Amino acid sequence: MSKATFRKFKKSDTEAIIKLWKKCKLLVPWNDPYKDINRKLSIKDNLFIIGEMNKHIIASAMAGYDGHRGYIYYLAVLPEYQKKGIGSSLLSIVEKKLLQLGCPKINLFVRNTNIRVKAFYKMNDYEIQDSQIYGKRLIEDN
Ligand SMILES: CC(C)(COP(=O)(O)OP(=O)(O)OC[C@H]1O[C@@H](n2cnc3c(N)ncnc32)[C@H](O)[C@@H]1OP(=O)(O)O)[C@@H](O)C(=O)NCCC(=O)NCCS
Which of 72, 84, 88, 103 is found 20 to 30 A from 120 (Cα to Cα)? Predict the structure, then answer.
């Protein structure tokens, strides 16, 4: 199998990325993926990374740094390419990019229903934090 390559997201990747997120079951009714992508592109931080194999998009990670923490969203690898180390490689690329910005720590959200992914983060040295996440929606997507 060829090797995955990684690059920053381009607007023309939108449909392929949304298909990927759908296949990876990351889409939820309360987040409009088009709006999520447009909001991310408006920040212009080049932290939205995709993975390709033979020119097909097979992976994504949308990261951010707010000056205190780094965050990672939409980490996904197409099911048929999972368990080959691509998710870990992408995570490590994102970690390096955040580190280059001086980011001291990373947090990420794992839905309580997404039990399978816990082994993946543990393997990549992420620990469950002793905090609860509070949220408040400022803009409804639909
Ligand atoms: C999480 C995800 C990005 C990992 O990508 P990946 O390329 O499979 O990861 P790697 O190959 O680097 O690591 C695989 C390891 O993670 C765990 N793992 C990953 N996917 C798994 C799955 N579907 N079932 C069970 N374990 C899984 C295992 O520990 C596995 O190690 P093993 O191969 O020795 O068993 C991928 O499974 C995915 O896209 N999942 C659906 C979307 C998702 O839940 N994203 C995370 C949102 S918080």
Answer: 103
Return the SS3 of 5.
strand
Tell me which residues have their CB closer than 6 angstroms to ligand 1.
Answer: 24, 26, 75-77, 82-88, 110, 114, 116-117, 119-120, 123
CA 65–ligand 1 middle distance (angstroms)? 24
- Which helix (DSSP H) or strand (DSSP E) does residue 122 occupy? helix 117-123
CA–centroid distance, residue 30 to ligand 1 (Å): 24
What pLDDT does 2 receive?
82
Q: Is the pTM of this model over 0.85?
A: yes
Structural domains of the chain sorted by starting position, each given as residue range(s) with its CATH number in brackets? 5-123 (3.40.630.30)
SS3 label, residue 130: coil
